[in-house]
From TrEMBL:
Pfam families: Asp-Al_Ex
Record field: transmembrane: 12-31, 38-59, 71-94, 101-120, 163-183, 375-395, 407-425, 437-455, 467-488, 495-517, 529-552
Membrane topology type: Multi-pass membrane protein
NCBIfam families: PRK03818.1, YidE_YbjL_dupl
Cell location: Cell membrane
Domain of life: Bacteria
Record bears the keyword Translocase: no
RCK C-terminal domain ranges (all copies): 283-365
UniProt keyword list: Cell membrane, Membrane, Transmembrane, Transmembrane helix, Transport
Family: Belongs to the AAE transporter (TC 2.A.81) family.
SUPFAM superfamilies in the cross-refs: TrkA C-terminal domain-like (SSF116726)
Protein name stated in the entry: Transporter
């Protein structure tokens, strides 16, 4: 049995792997336990780490620090890739409102931390640690410690205070965010399924999903004109897919010539199609799809690297088909001839059976290829994120450089890369299953290391000294801003509850709270709101922690 004891006691690679694996496995089991209908979920890994740390079953500090930061990078990078395609549209649709509310959470928390230090007779280094822990923001703790180290007459014991305050406040920081969500759910009598349906309905109304109309050509000015001679189709993002002429339905191409009495099928958004009825003619009684026995439609996925960046016009010309719609993550639109296809695009193609067979081979349409992630782009993206997160930003009045850190940098890079989609034959697309694995591995590594790091001092700090008093103060920093802003967002701005949960988790830059909120519903509302506010909040929390030290200490 000596080998087993040495495996738990001696620092080694097997020891590290064993402890981390046990913490994660037991934490996930703990997270499934239900108390009064409440489950910790993935946050159970943190509390499992605290238990292991309390009994001194920990790992090498340097290795722990690496695993914690690496896990955080994996998590936020996967989040960025997931929500990036919708980030820009979400920001301009309701991002200013969400970011304003999230900024209010940060400012209220900083104000409460300062008041607690002054009125509650808590040393400012401890208060800033409580502020970081209560808001589960590790980068702000690091920034505060760095600034504190630059001040005169600061001894080693004082430098430990922010970390101690952080360790005491962090567990309730996570639980407090979840508690705020549950309190709001009960207070406003929320029906999760109904909120998800309302969000999805709202997204569909604003997504401008293309529809089709069969119009009869009655405008004599169009008689004899080829499609290439009619400019308003391209300008209105409308595609003509089929034409009925002399009883024969054919695929519409640039050389298709219109004649009075023809019926044409147009695909586009509802408003321009209604406008085109005035220019072309009324809706036809004929359904072209029903009588087009020689034409077929099929959805094909772009998975062949040789097809990436081909234009829609070139594909239609080469294969004699019409591409009426393109579906990308969270968006579907009618493409113009100049649109370039990307890896993972789902194309709605109309043509003869032979033409569809030919273009299917060219596009790939391989689900196996779609589900197989490219590894190189992942690490290139992480490298760019680390570089951005390490870049020093010098702000007026701040003596030391501010950095986005290992959370903000990779998140912003992932969002930008997901918007680019492809870089030559290299794609930033990550299959959903791969994204989930990357995200979950990252968050459990992060939580396990945070728990192991804080576990040895956690119980002692609570039992002796002012630990419980500090925890109560930290609870105020966590709960009051969340409850105030949540009430304002729900009552005055009528925010969807799932978006509100994403806002609360993002305003605290808290991955476990995000994971908990995501467990409430599979809707994308939570992640979209989280990613919308996360970049600004990360910067504000780093600056706020430094300002507390510089202006008050």
């Amino acid at each position: 049995m000596s080998w087993l004891l040495s495996l738990f006691n001696q620092d080694s690679v097997p020891h590290t792997l064993l402890i981390i694996s046990l913490v994660v496995a037991s934490g996930l089991v703990l997270g499934r336990l239900s108390l009064a209908g409440i489950q910790l979920g993935i946050a159970g890994v943190l509390f499992s780490g605290l238990i292991f740390g309390h009994f001194h079953l920990s790992i090498n500090p340097e290795v722990m620090h690496f695993l914690r930061e690496f896990g955080l990078v994996l998590f936020v990078y996967a989040i960025g890739l997931q929500v990036g395609p919708s980030f820009v549209s979400a920001f301009f649709r309701y991002g200013l409102r969400l970011n304003g509310l999230a900024a209010a959470v940060v400012l209220l928390g900083a104000l409460i931390a300062v008041l607690i230090s002054i009125v509650g007779d808590i040393p400012m280094p401890v208060a800033v640690g409580l502020f970081s822990g209560a808001t589960t923001n590790t980068p702000s703790l690091a920034a505060a410690q760095q600034v504190l180290d630059t001040l005169p007459n600061i001894g080693p014991e004082t430098l430990k205070m922010p970390g101690l305050g952080y360790a005491v406040a962090y567990p309730f920081g996570i639980a407090g965010i979840i508690l705020a969500m549950l309190l709001n759910k009960r207070l406003f009598k929320i029906d999760i399924a109904q909120e998800a349906k309302l969000f999805d309905d709202n997204q569909q109304q604003q997504a401008h999903v293309p529809i089709w109309k069969d119009l009869k050509v009655e405008n004599p000015n169009l008689n004899g004109l080829m499609l290439s001679q009619i400019p308003f189709f391209e300008g209105m993002n409308v595609v003509m897919t089929r034409i009925l002429h002399n009883g024969q339905v054919d695929v519409a191409g640039q050389d298709s010539r219109l004649a009075l009495g023809d019926t044409i099928r147009l695909v586009g958004e509802r408003e321009p199609l209604e406008q085109l009825k005035i220019l072309i003619g009324p809706e036809s009684d004929i359904d072209l799809k029903q009588i087009a026995t020689n034409l077929h439609s099929k959805r094909l996925v772009v998975t062949n690297k040789a097809a990436i960046n081909e234009t829609i016009g070139n594909l239609c010309l080469l294969y004699g088909v019409t591409i009426s719609r393109i579906h990308r993550p969270d968006v579907e639109f009618s493409p113009t001839s100049h649109v370039h296809v990307q890896f993972g695009d789902e194309l709605h193609v109309v043509g003869s059976q032979d033409a569809l067979t030919s273009i299917e081979k060219a596009l790939g349409n391989s689900l196996e290829e779609l589900d197989h992630p490219q590894i190189m782009p992942i690490f290139i993206g992480i490298s760019l994120g680390v570089l951005l997160g390490s870049f020093p930003l010098y702000l007026p009045g701040i003596p030391s450089a501010v950095k986005l850190g290992m959370a903000g940098g990779p998140l912003l890079v992932a969002i930008m890369l997901s918007r680019i989609g492809n870089w030559g034959a290299m794609t930033w697309h990550l299959p959903k299953s791969s994204n989930i694995i990357l995200k979950d591995i990252g968050i459990v590594l992060f939580l396990a290391c945070v728990g192991l790091h804080s576990g040895d001092q956690f119980v002692e700090t609570l039992v002796k000294g002012d630990g419980f008093y500090w925890m109560a103060c930290a609870a105020l920093i966590t709960l009051l801003p969340l409850l105030i802003v949540a009430a304002v967002g729900r009552v005055f701005y009528k925010l969807n509850f799932l978006s509100l949960c994403g806002l609360l988790a993002g305003s605290m830059t808290d991955p476990p709270a995000l994971a908990f909120a995501n467990n409430l519903s599979p809707s994308a509302a939570v992640s979209m709101a989280y990613a919308t506010v996360y970049p600004l909040v990360m910067i504000l929390r780093i600056i706020a922690a430094q300002l507390i030290i510089l202006l008050v200490a």
